[in-house]
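Reproducibility note. Readers wishing to regenerate the assembly model reported in the main text can use the exact inputs given here. Chain order matters: entities are listed in the order in which they were concatenated for prediction.
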Amino acid sequence: MKTLTSPFGIIRTLVCAAALLVAVSAQAQIAYRFSINTASLIGASAGPFYLDFQLSDGSGLGDGNNTAWLSNFNFYGGAPTGAAAGAGAFTGNLSSSVSLRDQSFFNEFYQAFTPGSFLQFDLNLSARVDSGLVPDTFAFAILDSTLSNLPTLSGGSDVFASIDITGSSAVVHTFASNGSVSPAAGGPAITIFAPTITPVPEPSTYGIIAALALALTVVVRRHSRSRAT
Amino acid sequence: MYTGSNLVIARRRGLFAALAFFISGLPTFAGVTVTQNVSPAATSWPGTPLIRSVTNPSSQATVGESFGGATSYTETFTIVGPNNYTLQTIALYVGGGTGTTSSSTLTLNLYDLGAQVAPNPNSYAAGVNLLGSGSGLPISYVTQSNGVLQLDFTGSDQVMLLASHLYAFEIAGVSGTTPMTWFRAGSDTYSGGAAYRSRSWINGNNARDFAMAVYGVINTNPPPPTTATVNANTTFQAIDGFGAGAVFLYEGQDPLTDAVMDALYGTGPDQMALTLLRVRISPYGAGDWTNAILDGQKAHVRGARVLATPWTPPAAMKDNNSTIHGSLMPSQYPNYVDYLNQFTDTMAANNAPVSVVSLQNEPDWNPDYEGCVWTADQFHTFCRDFAGGIKVPMMMPESLAFNQSMSNPTLNDPAAAANVDYVGGHLYGATIQDYPLAHSLGKHTWMTEFLINDQSITSAVSTGQQISDCLTVGNMSAYIWWKTIGDTNGLLNNAGALQRRAYVMGQFSRFVRPGDLRIGVTGNTSPLGISAFANQYRNQVTIVAVNNTVAPVTHTFNLQGIATAMVTPVITSATQSLETQSPVVVSGNSFTYSIPATSVATFVTAPPISVSAGGFVYNRRSGLMIQQVTLTNSTDSTITGPISLALDNLSSNTTLANAAGTTVNPPAGSPFVVASSGDLAPGATLNVTLQFTLPASGGITYAARTVTGMATP
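Running the prediction on these inputs yields the following structure tokens for the assembly.
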């Protein structure tokens, strides 16, 4: 009689678990943690500043096939202020969470904040690929008091990060501020390093990993008992 | 040990050996040795021929052919497999004539027509001449009594004859001379070939054979490679387009429906993208021009151009007061100009502008239906003294068999030629040939009508061969099939279904677009009909290969001046209808492909520069939508700069804020940015920033197109 402790049983269990893991990973969802040093914004004359998020449509116009969900904002001594504003399909605010959907060509959210020493937030991004030349794109910028982007080295867009949704391995670009160009609101140029963007496993992936670890533990223990008897 | 005497012998032996070595080292000169009077009044062929078209030359070959009105005589023959052979000798049954002189010449030509089934084809175009390094072999002949003329080939003219291939052995001469008479049978004495006059079946009949015997020995060497070189650095005429006629359609078919026009003139999938429509100028006045107007409108809105042709002037302008037979009276020339202008004005006023107006359909044909006879001198007079009053570009003479003598007097007179824009002709009974006089004057030549009442794939592919020959041999700029619709010979049948010939035309018209330049094809194209075209504004080269044989042909294409990483084949055959095949990688500027039997294959190069785009990001500081685009040289060749990126069909809700200008070459009016003023190395990339105004609504769409090597794209 075949048991779980047979070599075939172990292999079968591992293959099934791996397949499940791959299947979950293949879901069109990617997650990142953004971290950016905002200390140089504290007291800067170009403020108040705004966090600006965009989700623009690519070749699949108005298809609403992608969503950006931003959460877990941590201002490290700062705080969101004022009301949320934007264009296109957006909801939420910096005190809780923000979502953008590519229901229109251009979808934008922005809201003022008081900068702290650091800023951190999580981005969950669906990763459905548009057919055609142009991908959907998520972008992150900081606006000055005139609602103009702080200058960055992005080559024209003045964003600190953009993510082209080209699949589960989206193309991530990060940029530092342009330290030689003053903000549109005036005052000296502001130096901000490029944000750190790290992929984070989704909660569902954590569950799968835990389940896989548990299964392996059970298998190993049963295997040990059968040897002992 | 050598003694004195054997030393001499040894020295002599050494001398002989050296001499033998010297002789063996001499090249064997190519050519032909002509031996006359081999067997007077021969009742059989000497030796053991490999092939003989008659068994008893003197009794079977009783009809003599000379060069009275012809330029060549030909007998085709088939090499029965499985062996290939080395050609050694060809024997002919000839006699009489005046003999060759400097003005009365004879030249031997040999063409590989591929895997044809004799007695087909009904006509052939010269491909690569296998004799005389491509130039043929001139021979001398003195008058002899009827008998065998033996032609022994030497050196490289002992060509390899491939199993199952049909060959055309041709004797070319000067029309109007009679240096020699070649005798033929008045019946079909040889099933493996047929007799031709000026490269067409004699009298349109395939049941004739010239008296000929072919001698050879088995050749076990591999056959020579079939390789052609497509060279984009050598350019020829510009292409004006491909089309069909909306004339004398059956009841209920005219005016053409939108469905018919979409199938033939649309550019979508399974549409043929024709760009020329031929309509008739009715002689009965404006009241009878409705269908031409409606058809012209439908063509115009689909981006096609209209050629308007009269079959006859109004009866009152003719010397017999009839629309049938007769001629245009010289006194009516001014009125005829007015009549043509009235037609084109009416068409233009009804949004069906005429791009080219013809003076007359088939002026050298006098049928019992609408027609009008013109002489070459009448054309000359009309063009010189009156045609300047015609308001739209003018075509003449549209002769039945593209008879150049109908237009030569006009073109040879600068005053008359100045009023001619296009030279048109038909191919009924014609040999496709170049028209250097017209082309030297910058006149585009068009084939404006031909038909065959045969809708088979064999006939359709023959049309493909004819198109290829018109473009390459004739240097023509347009090809127009007789009818758009009709069961017997339409591109669509009565039910509106695309026929094989429509797809064959689509192999050209969908990919070779107006303004494209024909480019050079050299080397061994046989047995394919190969033509190639370049559009420098689209960075695209199109190669069309017609396989008018019953066997697949594997062919290698070398590319010069063409930067591409791959080509995409598209094929029409008995079972395929413009079917796109898997891309073929171009390696070392070369690719090889097996082209199916009785098919047309079109190879389209991939853009040498691949374009990848990032998404749109809005910059509130500049108020512009920003997009990053990366251009990559995907070939293994350096691409010549400057390199520009043009945005065709940019959505009207935005503008390209950082455009360097708009394109002036087709497609004109597209905004562009200059990505680099220099060259782009293989694999190298260029990053381009595009800045768009923010659309009030809707998205930004465009088709990216790279243009290379042009300061002004």
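We highlight two features of this model. Chain A has one domain: 29-202. The first strand of chain A starts at residue 29 and ends at 37.
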